[in-house]
Design a protein that fits this description.
The structure holds 2 protein chains of 2 kinds. Chain A is an all-alpha fold. Chain A has 11 helices and no strands. Chain A is 73% helix and 0% strand. The longest helix of chain A has 35 residues. In chain B, a hairpin with a 6-residue loop joins strand 1 and strand 2. In chain B, helix 4 packs antiparallel against helix 9 and helix 9 runs antiparallel to helix 12. Classes of the chains: A mainly alpha, B mainly alpha. The interface between A and B is large, with 88 and 85 residues.
């Protein structure tokens, strides 16, 4: 009798606390949307920020975030997929492999601010890249690589063994098997993992403050020559991203509407990150259907 | 037609090259990872240690000094306020998040396995997708005013910092704990029920003790994330350079000081080097957390 009462009390406590978490989540999302969505307009999304007077937008920041994401993916996809393939297909169990595993684990546990500082020291100062999109993209690549390696390894390990054995039976080389048999099968999970990682890159700020910089030069969106200093495509210009902008507006915003700008920008950021997460699942399913001809 | 006339390259040679491109390419990727990790450690350590070896500040003064006044005359480089700030916020955040995470994980795996997972799993994934600056923004516009209206004062401080961190690490803690619980062999659970134990007795006497190392792994990974988090904490903690005496007092963490001061100091100055020493403390703590996770995993296997 007593044990049953305790059981009931414990169960209800667990249920209440679990629902509490759902309420926190709905509250957070609701709050961000409630505060921010009214401020989002075409003008807000496209115009440049105003430092002292109101009415500024987040146009350049939004562009910088997207451009930086593309640059980062150009660096991380070949390296991350390659590293993951090594871990799944070439690495033999032993001391060296477990050492590499430790390296990946340590690298993924480094705080992003430490990676930002490393970028400041090596990329910005030593290599003379300055506060630039390139520095930011390389720092984000470091931040992102361990995650990419891990998801790639899992994707390749999940491919049924028979597929590989069939390839070996045909007398194909290992690399041929990897690129033409395993890669297509693993591709849906690879794409899903990459998009999910992109969501994380998109919201990252601490690693970027010291590498991509906290300012954006006035951009001329009619100038698409990547070498001119005011061109949005120039990879050697400083670039403040959306997440960094939110931080800056919140902690040192002096404009009259800095609270609204922060709220609007936060809502845009959250909507984009959610879009990344949802599209990752959707695209993964579509590609899977294409690749495997299953319904 | 034409194909037949062309002399084909010997199969063996073609294979040979294909084999080596793959091997070399993927190995370069892995070597790159190793080089990056070691260069991070090397650069941060060489910068961080120069405070002690070049600028002549003793390690005990840095780790134990209560006064941080790098611009004063004489200058003081005591990082104790920030070290305590980091540890207190991390521990409190873990204390709040672990029971909540455990309840959520139990809810998903033990109480309503099917439906509970359907409700909570997406919720947790969404929470983990929210960027840290947005958490900072929420802290600044919800938690700080709330604390201000309840307890008075400014509202910024350790309490606000650890509440924000607790929500941030909740997804990490919950998902790892849920994985640990669902990996438990079914037989254990069923034999406990067969003995007539209630669900709570099963959870409390069988499930939690057997999965404890794995559950703690979740807590440690959450703490690692909280310890290294910079911007969200910096926005709500107030950033005052003294050892806090109450939870509602403004304080600083290692990350928040680095964030605020790194841009305003010149490379190579003592002040700048002291900030690098703090980064080194962060780095060392990362290794401590990794070692802790490894130890827990080893216990889990036995």
């Amino acid at each position: 009798m007593k044990a049953k009462t305790v059981d009931k009390i414990a169960t209800s406590v667990i249920v209440v606390l679990a629902l509490f978490i759902v309420i926190i989540l709905l509250g957070l999302l609701g709050f961000i949307m409630y505060r921010g969505i009214g401020h989002i307009s075409w003008n807000f999304l496209t115009s440049a920020p105003q430092l002292l007077k109101g009415g500024g937008g987040i146009g350049p920041q939004l562009f910088n975030s997207v451009f930086l994401l593309i640059l980062t993916l150009i660096v991380t996809i070949p390296l991350g997929w390659g590293g993951g393939i090594y871990m799944a297909e070439y690495a033999k169990p032993g001391k060296i492999t477990s050492f590499i595993r430790l390296v990946v684990e340590v690298l993924s546990s480094f705080p992003s601010i430490v990676i930002g500082l490393f970028g400041l020291l090596l990329l910005v100062n030593q290599f003379g890249l300055g506060f630039s999109l390139i520095s930011g993209a390389l720092a984000l690549a470091i931040f992102n690589l361990p995650l990419m390696v891990r998801t790639t390894e899992q994707a390749f390990r999940a491919v049924p063994k028979e597929q590989k054995e069939a390839g070996l039976a045909l007398g194909l080389s290992k690399w041929k098997i990897i690129t033409s048999i395993l890669l297509p099968v693993a591709l849906p999970s690879l794409i899903t993992g990459t998009i999910l990682a992109s969501g994380r890159i998109f919201g990252e700020a601490a690693a970027l403050m010291f590498t991509a910089g906290m300012s954006s030069p006035p951009l001329d969106f009619t100038d698409w020559n990547p070498t001119s200093p005011r061109s949005p495509l120039n990879p050697f210009r400083p670039a403040e991203t959306l997440a960094v902008h939110i931080w800056k507006v919140n902690s040192e915003g002096i404009g009259p509407d800095s609270k609204e700008v922060a709220a609007g920008a936060s809502a845009v950021l959250v909507i984009l990150v959610l879009a990344f997460n949802l599209s990752a699942r959707w695209i993964g399913r579509v590609v899977f259907r294409r690749m495997t001809a299953s319904k | 037609m034409n194909n037949k006339l062309k002399p084909r390259r010997p199969l063996k040679e073609k294979h040979y090259w294909e084999e080596w491109t793959g091997r070399i390419y993927t190995s370069i990727c892995v070597v790159f990872l190793i080089v990056v990790m070691f260069s991070i450690v090397y650069f941060v350590a060489s910068k961080g240690l120069s405070t002690f070896f070049q600028n002549g500040i003793s390690i005990s003064e840095f780790l134990g000094g209560k006064t941080w006044n790098p611009t004063g005359e004489p200058a003081f480089y005591g990082a104790l306020p920030f070290i305590t700030g980091s540890f207190i916020t991390t521990l409190l955040a873990a204390l709040i998040a672990s029971p909540l995470g455990l309840c959520a994980a139990l809810f998903m795996t033990e109480i309503v396995p099917g439906k509970g997972k359907k409700i909570l799993q997406p919720a947790i994934e969404l929470l983990s997708g929210i960027p840290s600056v947005v958490y900072g923004f929420i802290g600044l516009s919800v938690i700080v005013p709330l604390l201000r209206s309840i307890f008075g004062g400014t509202g910024v401080g350790i309490a606000a910092g650890c509440l924000v961190l607790a929500v941030m690490i909740l997804p990490t803690v919950t998902s790892i704990m849920a994985d640990a619980l669902s990996a438990l062999p079914k037989g254990l659970r069923e034999s406990s029920y067969a003995l007539g134990a209630t669900r709570w007795q099963t959870i409390y006497r069988v499930i939690i003790p057997t999965t404890l190392p794995a559950l703690l792994t979740g807590v440690v990974l959450g703490m690692a994330r909280a310890f290294g988090e910079a911007l969200a904490v910096q926005m709500v903690i107030g950033n005052a350079p003294h050892v806090p005496t109450s939870l509602l007092e403004s304080a600083s963490t290692l990350t928040s000081v680095i964030t605020l001061s790194m841009g305003n100091t010149t490379m190579g100055s003592v002040h700048n080097n002291a900030l690098w020493s703090m980064a080194l403390v962060l780095l060392v703590m990362t290794f401590v957390f990794v070692i802790l996770v490894r130890l827990l995993e080893r216990r889990n296997r036995v």
